[in-house]
Amino acid sequence: MPEAATPVASGPTLARSPRVGYLDYARVGPLSRPAAAALAATTALAARVDPADLDRLFALGDAARTSAARLLDARPHEIALAPSTSNGLFTVAAALHGPGTILVPRGEFPANLYPWLRFADRGGPAVRLVDPAGQRHITPDLLRRHLTTDVIALTVSAVDSLTGHLAPLAALKEVLGPERLLIVDAIQGLGAVALEADAADILVSGGQKWLRAGWGAALLLIRDRCADRLAPGLGGWAGVAEPFAPRHPAPPLPGAAAHLATNPDFPAAAAIGAAIDDLFDQGGPAAVGARIRATLADLLDRARRVGADILLDGLGPQERAGIGTFRLPGHDPATVHHTLEAAGLITTRRDEWIRLSPHASTPGAAADLLAEALYTLTHRTTHYPQEPTCPLN
Q: Angle 333-342/365-378 helices, nearest 10 degrees?
C-alpha cells in the first residue's frame, strides 16, 4: 500500500504574495503558498533514494486526481494528468477518429484550434469554423443553425481569453444532445468561476493561471459516457494495464489514463492537487468567483469613469468570469499599457485593448492605483517650451 499522500515538510522558501497591482492572472497566476509548498516538498522527495518515496510520489498523483474529481463533479478514473492544456487537447484530437466534423468558433484561442487542424488530415474529424456573424461568441441558437448530420463535436473555451465571456456550457450541451461531444478548454475558467463542468464530455485545463499551481500538470477529463468513442491515440506504456507484458500492444487502462503517453510530472501533480484543495479551503469555486467578479467590477467601473470603452460592456454579472478588457479612445494603447506598468499595474495588451484579470486575493488598493493612473493619463496636458526671446541690442 502506498503511504499517505502528504508531502514532506521541507524545501525552499515559499512564494511571496504577488504585488498589489498584479492584474494578469489570465496570463499566469503566481504560485500560491500551498502549491509552492507542495512543489518544494515533492521535489525534495524526488531527490531522495528511499524506495518508498516512489510510492509516495504516485500517491500524490492519485490524490491530485481525487481532488480534481471533486472540482469537476467526476470520478477519479475519469481524470488523467497531462503535461499542459495544449498537450491534453492534442491527446483528445489524436483520440477522436472516424468520419465527421468538429465545430470550432472562429474566435477561439489558437490552442483550441491547432490540435484539430493537425489531426484533420490524420484520421481526425474535419474542422468547420463557426463564424459568430456579428456576435463575438457562439450561442445556443447559433450552434443550432450549424448542426448538420455530420457534426460529431463542438470544442469551445469555457471563458473567452479576451472578453471574459462565460460560455453557457449546459445550454450548448443541451443543443448538442447526448450523441455529440462537448469539448471544453477550461483554463481561463477553472479556479476563477463556478463552471457548468458536468455539461462537458471532455474537459482540459492547466493549472498555471487561476489555480496558481504553476506549469507541468493539467487536468484531462474524459467522462465514462463518451470513453468508448475515443481511441488511445497518444496512449503509451503508462496507459496500458500490463506495461511489462511479454507481448504488445497490451490492453489500455480503464478511464482517462488510457490516453497517457507516460507518467505525470509528480511535483507538478502535487502542486495542482494542493491548489485545488486550497480553492475549496477558500470557499470553493462559487465563493472565490464571486470575489473575483466583485474586484473586476470595481476595476472596470474605475476605467469607465475616465471614459474607457469596456469590451462587451453589456454582459450580465453572471456572463463574465474573471477577465475584463478596456481601451481609452484617443490614447495610444501602448502608451496606456506602459503608463499602467510604470504605476505598478501588470496587465496584458491585445492590440488596442488592455486586459484586466484580478484574483480573489487582489487587494482593493489595486483599483485605486488603476484609477489614479488612468486619471493622470486622461488629464495629462502637453506643455511645449516657450521659444527663447532675443534681447534687443
A: 130
Tell me how far CA of residue 175 lies from CA of 89, 130, 133, 393, in angstroms: 22, 15, 19, 88
CATH code assigned to 285-378: 3.90.1150.10
Domain ranges of the chain: 33-281, 285-378
pLDDT single digits (tens) 14-69:
455 678 999 999 999 999 999 999 999 999 998 886 888 888 999 999 999 999 99
Report the alpha-carbon distance of residue 252 to residue 121 in Å, rounded.
Answer: 25
Is the CATH number of domain 33-281 1.10.10.10?
no
Distance CA 393, CA 390 (A): 9
Identical topology for domains 33-281 and 285-378: no
Contacts of 75 (CB under 8 A, 6+ apart): 69, 224, 255
Distance between CA atoms of 76 and 255, rounded to whole angstroms?
A: 9
**Prediction pTM value:** 0.91
Give the list of residues 6+ apart from residue 289 with CB closer than 8 angstroms, or none.
Answer: 192, 193, 194, 321, 322
Position 235: which residue type?
Answer: G
- Closest C-alpha among 86, 109, 89, 201 to residue 164: 109
Per-residue pLDDT tens over the stretch 302-325: 999 999 999 999 898 899 999 999
